[in-house]
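Human: Here is a favour to ask of a fellow structure person. Comparing notes only helps if you start from a blank page. Give me a protein, with the fold worked out from its sequence. Please set it down just below, with no commentary around it:

Assistant:
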Amino acid sequence: MAILLTVKVFPAAGRQVFMLDKSGTIKCFLKSQAEKGKANDELVKLLAAKLTVSRQSIMILKGVTSQRKTIKITTPLTLEEIFQALGIGYQQSLAKE
């Protein structure tokens, strides 16, 4: 099963963390700079590690050079399980829709 996530990325933030803002947007803070694909690589590695899937299971569909990215994750996990693995509240995101 494939799941699409829209994530707003903040490169060079000095930390690696996922958060959900008040509008329901998933934010990802990364250590890497936004140059030569470093932040995108870090994002894919971080997602793969947190979701315990291979890096090949994660693809940036839109926003390779943008702060806002659409990511396709091929996994048997549900959306709720993905949010839990990322440490963000699934119920919070539903309340914002």
Observations:
- The first strand starts at residue 2 and ends at 10.
